[in-house]
Design brief:
alpha/beta, Rossmann fold, three-stranded antiparallel β-sheet, 52% helix, globular
Length: 528
Amino acid sequence: MGFEPPKCYPGTRIAIKKDLIEWVQNIEQRHSIYHLYAPAGSGKTAIAKTLSDHFSDFGDLLASFFFSRTIETRNTAQRFIATIAYQVALNLPCTKQFVVEAFLNDPAIVHKNLRTQMEKLILEPLSKACSLPIQVERAAERLEWPRLLVIDGLDECHGEETQVEILSVISDLAHRRPFPLAIFISCRPEIHIRKAFQELDLLNRLSRKISLSNEYSSKDDIRLFLESKFAEIREAHSKNMPFPSDWPGKEILNALVRKSSGHFIYASVVTNYVGVNDDNPIERLRVVLGLAESANDEKPFTQLDTLYTRILESIRARHLPIIMDAFSFSLEPVLWPEQPGRISMDGQLLLDEPDLRVGLAKLKGILVDVSHFPFHGVHVNFLHSSFSDFLLDSDRSGTFHISVAEAHANIAVYLLKRHIMDTSGASISEIDISKCFHFVVVNESLSKTAIASLVTHLPFAAPKNELHCQLQRLNHPQLVVNVIKLCNSLDEHGVFFDAGAVLHGLIGSLGKSVSAHGIKEVAKPDLS
């Protein structure tokens, strides 16, 4: 069976389908390129396929190409232009003779660079077709020529340079088009693709850039999809077992919609797993919700886990440790589940460092959203709520697993290395207070907050070797003296902080932590 991309579920994506149809039909459009971008699993391919099928039914589809990372004939640019040219010849018959001539004149044309292929196999045949003599009364027929070109999954084509080259060639086609063309491009917002749309002048001017996640809410569509799919599951299994009429119930539906985070892939994976014909859907849903174990070691989220793993494997090895630190900070809601009203102290403590910036750039808009706070703090939010579950489950995430205790330890080590030790790694007892933190006086509140945060994380931290080493380098009495000096300095600048509470908490936490890590505890100072 050939490659068949998914389509939008009936009754969903109404708003964007309406907008896209109007865009294609407006031949005077200013933007001949429509760039739709969104994270993995958002339903971009389904939208592209639905758009393609809609205009194909009316004879208005010029050509389409769906890249796919896992399909050999669709994960490179080798057949891209030739496939488009073949479809142009079929869907616009007046170009056929010119496309055939191009192949006959240069049989090796498919092995030449993309720009030459586009020129000879697509642009020239279209231009020659437009130059054919035509009766005056039939001139209007050209306005009815198919004009839609759909390109989906550009980010799944091998090679970042090749992806950018395709964008450059497509923008040239849009600029030199001999008759109105509407070119739809959908992909993930990879950094090099975002950069190309910003820096390639033609591409930037001719493109309408739309974020699927920001412009179109999918919450109601996902709810409709889940309700319809669960209704199908109830009907399919009704002969063998009784179901409540509203199964699985409003509360569970709401939970699944929240867990989807606007991404159809989660909802699709859940319903595909639950709806297996030869098993009990009620028990399978309990497995999904974490309320029961799978009877046969079958994993409900294999497809989703493969997606997450593939994205994480694209991170360079040198950037992975700092990215895992960032993930630990992002897991804070999971670290403190019993304190829903707790004010986050960690969100502003992740520093905007070069390695972090480069590593996050690969994930931004795909797996995470990044917010910048004053004085260089960075907050990383997961775009997929289910990603937290993935990281915390060792069976699912494997080498990317982070336990709750490890997350506490990762944060503690980060705080000690980045905020409480100076950049040379010297102990606080060995350096001057004015130099023992990364920030100038106006920013020292971050270092103060880091100490308070350290107090909260140490009692729950896993006994990691790196944390052991960092704790050994602390000298408690001098640490306390320096914290007092710091707090006094902050008070002078109008920054209030309960130094006493922090000091006692820090001493207590260090006492517990050094004991747990097998470190000989030094004498505590007299604070009276």
